[in-house]
Amino acid sequence: MDDNRQNPSSGHEVALRRIQRLSLHLYTPSEPHSGELSLLPCRAKRNLSPSVESLSEYMRGPHREIQARIFEFFQSRPDLQTPVEISMAEHRQLCMRQITALVREAGIRPFRYLVENPSAYFAIAEAVGGVDISLGIKMGVQFSLWGGSVINLGTKKHKEKYFDGIDNLDYPGCFAMTELHHGSNVQALQTTATFDPITDEFVINTPNDGAIKWWIGNAAVHGKFASVFARLILPLQGKGGKSADMGIHAFIVPIRDLETHVLLPGVEIHDCGHKVGLNGVDNGALRFSHVRVPRDNLLNRFGDVSRDGKYTSSLPTVNKRFAATLGELVGGRVGLAYSSVGVLKIAVTIAVRYSLLRQQFGPPRKPEVSVLDYQSQQHRLMPMLASTYAFHFATQYLVDKYSEMKKTNDDQVIGDVHALSAGLKSYVTSYTARSISTCRESCGGHGYAAVNQFGILRNDHDIFQTFEGDNTVLLQQVAGDLLKRYQEKFKGGTLTMTWNYLRESMSSYLSQPNPVTARWEGEDHLRDPKFQLDAFRYRTSRLLQSVAARLQKHSKTLGSFGAWNRCLNHLLTLAESHIESVVLAKFIEAVQNCPDANTREVLKLVCDLYALDRIWKDIGTYRNVDYVAPNKAKAIHKLTDYLSFQVRGIARELVDAFDLPDLVIRAPIGMASEAYEQYTQHVGF
């Protein structure tokens, strides 16, 4: 027989000890716990009373109205809302009906916004992705990738011929870049486009199975055109009368009949089938067997072929043309970074609302407490909530810079956007992918129910880490750009706005840490934006200096490629550190620019938590170089705990400020106080 059943008092003591152990997870406030979920003890000190409306207005910015239009439209159309259980074939057809209804019935024209007001386009993409991530990606394929390639790589004749059809969905299309054997290494694509001077046509051909275009969105079912990236081959133009390879160019290739939807001659398409997620997007594989297209179908902004087969370009080398071509496609990365933050907002909102509602255990003879009152749950979710705010402002800055780039075509801004979009896309999507799983775990068994969305969010978002550039590859681009800037600094070159802190960092930031400031541990000092930003930038600068020295050393024996590979993890850490510095700088700017004093104070609290949590997570780096003394490290840890507790006190208002309707949240456990009622109704009670 169980000992506890033999001795009731012993069983009571065991239960009491368990409760006492659990209570150690709680941050103990100065006031006794009342058992009421609405009582937020941390307000007793700061008395923060966030205005959800003011905070939401500042977050949403100028495009709140168009997002509301999208939500209202889909809310009014239950037939266009994606059910939890749906087959791949049904999901694909639903996605096509959704995007068609958005354009033709709701009157929202994303393509026009992409061209005329990119900031509004990305706001539309975030809202549409909230309705169904598959719909958001299908919209991106149609307008940003297929449409964007025509607009950005083509010239006036292409815009005049294709703009309206892309805009009104008469011309659904694909973006055929990735091949079976080559994804990230675009310069090594094998599909060919050989000019035939006799017929004035390009012959598009797949020379081997490795060159089959793979994972092409819109290809399996709905696409009628494709932007095909291929090697432009000019017969008899090379040395000794051989063919000349002019590098990667894009071509408009019709793949299905506009009227009958039948595959055109020479085009072979196979369905990539059921995927881990995003099954509303019809991915296909394309093989071309000597498909002929008119010479005008070359998207010729950066290189053209005349009637007699002569090649001309304003850019002198294959590498420069390639860089210009890919540079014009950076909008896809901007959109993914921005949309990933939208997914993170949904996951965090569900987890925070559930954690506030769910009550488990409590002090003896007292009501059970919210699981968000446990320090362990706060450590999981509050820094994540702070990061969500940080990423929101950082990606909004990226969108603004992208809009500036499209208006000005300024070379410095172009370089800035290219590196920043690579870094933010990589960092934010990786963080969101990890965070969705953490949010699921934070909601216990109920988080595992499909209706509560975490599985759908995780599976649909997971590929964000791969397409539009593998995250590890993109971080290497950021590191490479940092090293380039590092070299330019010593040559007296100018630095673009995102990188200009490196000029100062190479002197003051890398000087010996001040023994006095290394020991300052007061709250005012630790919450000073200058201390926080200096700490982030010091770490980046030290990593940059050390990896540059390592690369120089290893290149002597291993060569440049071998040295890069030997230092690869160091380079990835450098890139992430730099992106974190940029994120914090943009968050601090957003706090300072907030016009409402109360909202500004709330954002300052959240920003401090983001900064100090990141410093604490890498405290070993700061301790190793005596940038932070032992007592200061303890003070950072203690203050981070306290800030997490304070943010917990306003967590409901912070997630409510994301202004996400139930249409987007969908999870019964993440909607409102009646969540359990909705949840039980869902399973049939």
Automatic annotation (TrEMBL):
InterPro entries, A to Z: ACOX_C_alpha1, Acyl-CoA_Oxase/DH_mid-dom, Acyl-CoA_Oxase/DH_mid-dom_sf, Acyl-CoA_oxidase, Acyl-CoA_oxidase_C, AcylCo_DH-like_C, AcylCoA_DH/oxidase_NM_dom_sf
Domain Acyl-CoA oxidase C-alpha1: start-end pairs: 327-482
GO molecular function: acyl-CoA oxidase activity; FAD binding; fatty acid binding
TM spans (from-to): none
GO BP, one annotated term: lipid homeostasis
Catalytic activity: a 2,3-saturated acyl-CoA + O2 = a (2E)-enoyl-CoA + H2O2
Gene Ontology cellular component list: peroxisome
Obligatory cofactor(s): FAD
Binding site for FAD: T178, G217
Positions of the Acyl-CoA oxidase/dehydrogenase middle domain: 174-291
Subcellular localization(s) per the UniProt record: Peroxisome
Keyword Membrane found: no
Keywords, in A-Z order: FAD, Fatty acid metabolism, Flavoprotein, Lipid metabolism, Oxidoreductase, Peroxisome, Transit peptide
Catalytic residues of the enzyme: E468
Domain Acyl-CoA oxidase C-terminal residue range list: 528-683
Family classification: Belongs to the acyl-CoA oxidase family.
PANTHER family given in the database record: ACYL-COENZYME A OXIDASE, ELECTRON TRANSPORT OXIDOREDUCTASE
Protein name in UniProt: Acyl-coenzyme A oxidase
